[in-house]
Design a protein that fits this description.
Layout: E1 2-6, H1 10-27, E2 36-42, H2 45-49, E3 53-57, E4 66-72, H3 77-95, E5 99-101, E6 107-110, E7 113-116, H4 125-145
Helix pairs in contact: 1-3, 3-4
């Protein structure tokens, strides 16, 4: 996996890269080497857009392999790690063609089922998967590293 950064302290970049590589290898082991992710630390992302992070991709490919994950530069360490794990689940969903936003349609497709773009955030099955996996992925990564942080 190719990992790039826009901004961020050395410690944040090291943790984000390590967790992203761990998560990619765990969620999509055969595909991880074909993925590139650029992490952009954005000042006041939560204040301006109400999110700790989000995942985008370059739309030129039929099945995307190049992604951009924006992260709020000011969130605490645990929220940062959970956000990285959460967004890497979305990378997996998009790269494996499990999730697709249908551009000229009012629908998303997830695992061959169609969902209206107006569906509530917490009812989106792709968000349910990402929310459900984020904490466990962080705990597994910390255990592999032999570390404990905060409540973990």
């Amino acid at each position: 996996m190719i990992v790039m950064f826009s901004r961020g302290s050395k410690q944040k970049r090291n943790d984000v890269e390590s967790l992203a590589r761990f998560t990619a290898n765990k969620l999509m082991p055969r595909m991880a080497s074909k993925i590139s992710v650029e992490f952009c630390f954005v000042t006041n992302l939560f204040k301006q857009e109400g999110v700790f992070g989000d995942c985008g991709y370059y739309e030129g490919d039929a099945v995307p392999r190049d992604f951009v994950i924006r992260l709020d530069a000011g969130i605490d360490e645990l929220d940062l790690l959970k956000t990285v794990a959460h967004e890497m689940v979305h990378v997996k969903q998009i790269a494996r063609n499990e999730l697709k936003e249908l551009i000229r349609s009012p629908y998303f497709r997830f695992h061959r089922n169609y969902y209206p773009k107006t569906i509530d955030y917490f009812d989106k099955p792709w968000e349910i998967e990402a929310l459900g996996r984020e904490e466990g992925l962080v705990v597994q990564w910390l255990n592999k590293k032999g570390e404990k942080r905060g409540n973990y």
